Task: inverse folding
């Protein structure tokens, strides 16, 4: 594809002066309009060294309102970044609604520089294509405008520009030995770029290849591409119907009353004696402490996700998991309703921010599954949003698994009768009273609707790389040991200490 481009394209100065001023002013107006419409915009600049990325970015942002624009120069990942999935450093820089983020180089370094320079394995860059397409699709589905620009110049033109820059007293430092080394492998990079464009140019995030030999033509093409994308998004926003925010029970709720589900197979009579509990607790806590150090040594991250009914005992369960761990090696992340920046970003953004470094453990008290539970039931997101979240969550967890994370997911299950008993107990005991709120009682009134959502969640998101474990939690002692044992076994399997047991998915 790239060899067919007409790199001699140019524009006369008079025509450029007129068009550029108009486009520059239009972009300022569009920035204001996208801010008011709460449309996020993400611009990724890729292309050859010396093709004009820096100049294009400078011209682009110098007339925009700087309060709404962030420029992210991307270089080789730092140590902190290498210890997390490769998309982590880009997810954490995703703009909020109404903001503009400009990337000088981007997530495509994974399938360009890291691939060509053989810094990663073939399996890693092959899987990166899927992760990149999924990343962009999730953001686009959430309303993100994604503009991807490849600035293209010939091998001969790049060599010419390198030599011109080296002659400059002020800019000679910009051309390094690494740049010349990469130039010698122009053909290798060209093949990688061709494949990248073919495999990642999609309807929701298409590539625009910019013939960048002529500076004026380059700038006009860059500005017009961005202006057109922002205008298209604004037009589409104006035609959208307002999302439905009222919760409603679907026909699936009635159907669940008449059919047996995975929750009906749970034996809630499981229990432990205090003596058995005390012995098992010590055994598994000691073993988990040992595995915590092994995970650090082998740089394997562990992520434990807790979901369950109100009053199911998540807090007490988590306390027993962390009780004997080295506090320097784990973090507990309590999740509440999104607020501030959390509410202006894609719902997964706040969870990506908390992904642990390789070798560390993160425990989530409530999780990204709120999208298909409370947000679904309470109408905080539209039906198309929570339905596509099943796929988005599976892809999110696959990205973590591809990085080597050991994933453990718990649903703590109790009966309605046990929940009612615990609610009443909390109201009677002073130091537990703060745990029971009017919202807990309202949620209990919607038990059937929540149950339907839970069944959907378990069926749609229990995978080979991130299976659900339903914990019988009517007896708190049993539930704590079951969770500890499951975490220990999962880490043992992840580290290769034992073979994975065959078991049916939730």
Result:
């Amino acid at each position: 594809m790239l060899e067919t481009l007409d790199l001699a394209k140019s524009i006369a100065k008079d025509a450029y002066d007129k068009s550029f001023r108009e486009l520059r002013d239009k972009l300022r107006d569009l920035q204001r309009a996208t801010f008011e419409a709460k449309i996020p915009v993400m611009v990724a600049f890729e292309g050859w060294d010396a093709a004009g990325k820096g100049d294009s970015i400078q011209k682009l942002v110098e007339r925009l309102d700087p309060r709404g624009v962030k420029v992210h120069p991307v270089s080789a990942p730092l140590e902190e970044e290498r210890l997390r999935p490769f998309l982590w450093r880009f997810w954490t820089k995703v703009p909020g609604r109404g903001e503009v983020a400009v990337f000088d180089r981007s997530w495509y370094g994974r399938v360009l520089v890291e691939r060509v320079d053989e810094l990663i394995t073939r399996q890693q860059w092959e899987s990166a294509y899927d992760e990149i397409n999924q990343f962009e699709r999730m953001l686009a589905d959430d309303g993100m405008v994604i503009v991807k620009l490849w600035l293209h110049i010939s091998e001969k033109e790049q060599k010419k520009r390198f030599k011109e820059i080296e002659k400059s007293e002020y800019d000679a430092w910009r051309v390094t030995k690494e740049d010349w080394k990469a130039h010698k492998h122009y053909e290798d990079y060209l093949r990688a770029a061709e494949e990248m464009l073919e495999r990642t140019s999609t309807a929701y995030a298409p590539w625009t290849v910019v013939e960048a030999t002529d500076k004026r033509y380059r700038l006009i093409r860059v500005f017009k591409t961005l202006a057109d994308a922002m205008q298209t998004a604004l037009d589409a926003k104006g035609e959208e119907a307002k999302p439905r925010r009222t919760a409603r029970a679907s026909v699936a709720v009635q159907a669940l009353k008449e059919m047996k589900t995975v929750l009906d197979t749970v034996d809630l009579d499981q229990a432990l004696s205090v003596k058995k509990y005390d012995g098992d607790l010590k055994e598994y806590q000691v073993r988990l402490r040992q595995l915590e150090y092994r995970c650090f040594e082998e740089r394997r991250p562990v992520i434990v996700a807790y979901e369950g009914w109100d009053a199911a005992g998540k807090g007490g369960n988590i306390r027993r998991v962390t009780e004997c761990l080295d506090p320097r090696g784990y973090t507990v992340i309590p999740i509440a309703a999104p607020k501030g920046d959390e509410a202006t970003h894609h719902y997964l953004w706040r969870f990506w921010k908390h992904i642990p470094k390789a070798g560390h453990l993160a425990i989530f008290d409530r999780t990204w599954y709120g999208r298909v539970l409370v947000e679904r039931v309470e109408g905080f997101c539209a039906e198309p949003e929570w339905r596509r979240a099943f796929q988005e969550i599976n892809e999110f967890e696959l990205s973590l698994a591809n990085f080597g994370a050991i994933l453990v997911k718990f649903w703590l299950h109790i009966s309605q009768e046990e929940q009612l008993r615990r609610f009443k107990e909390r109201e009677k005991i002073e130091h537990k009273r703060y745990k029971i709120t009017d919202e807990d009682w309202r949620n209990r009134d919607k038990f059937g609707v929540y149950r339907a959502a839970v069944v959907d969640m378990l069926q749609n998101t229990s995978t080979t790389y991130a299976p659900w474990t339903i914990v019988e939690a009517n007896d708190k002692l049993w539930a704590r040991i079951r969770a500890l044992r499951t975490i220990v076994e999962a880490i043992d399997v992840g580290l290769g200490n034992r073979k994975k047991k065959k078991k049916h998915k939730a």
The first strand starts at residue 41 and ends at 47. Residues 262-493 form a domain with the Rossmann fold fold (CATH 3.40.50.300).
